[in-house]
Amino acid sequence: MQLIVATRNAHKTREIQQILGSDFAVSDLSAHPEIPATPEHGKSFEENAMLKAAGASRYLPGLIVADDSGLEVDALGGAPGIFSARYAGKNSTDQQNIDKLLRELARVTANGIQRSARFRCVIALAREGALLGMFEGAVEGIIADTPRGQGGFGYDPVFVPRGLEETFAQLPAEVKNGIGHRAKAIRALSRKLAAFKPPD
Length: 200
Known about the structure:
Layout lengths: L1 E4 L4 H11 L4 E4 L16 H13 L6 E10 L20 H14 L8 E12 L2 E14 L15 E3 L11 H7 L1 H16 L4
Parallel strand pairs: 1-2, 1-3
Antiparallel strand pairs: 3-4, 4-5, 5-6
């Protein structure tokens, strides 16, 4: 089954392919430079995911999915939230975003339960400009004092999922894909995809 992800983030596309497995052929917008990026001006993960999926589905046939995901830190009032990818500025790197996060946590002297946080992911499914469904996943955890691990991307080096001692960046991909926020949302999506598959 063909599925197009409305992203040019190769890490995200690879992760979605790994989670869905060989029954799906997952591609993204890298091969479609003519499709403009959708402005993420929504006020929630749900709105941004919907904007991206519906926007790309107006240019391409078939089923289009888009996710919006991010980190919510309780001591920071839910920040960085929808601004996770650009927390330290418009074109900030993962390291710059992590550095700002740790500085902000130090500023509010967060420790123990105050370092509680969660990754949230919302996936929108669209076809021909119409929204077909929304799917959500979340994983609770805490923010580590310092980055650890070389795997993953984004805030993975400082996020320790509840019940474990390793950060997401220290865990093997198959473990992260089993418990992660995007994995939960994608599994919810995959249970519904057959109903949206067009007839042969």
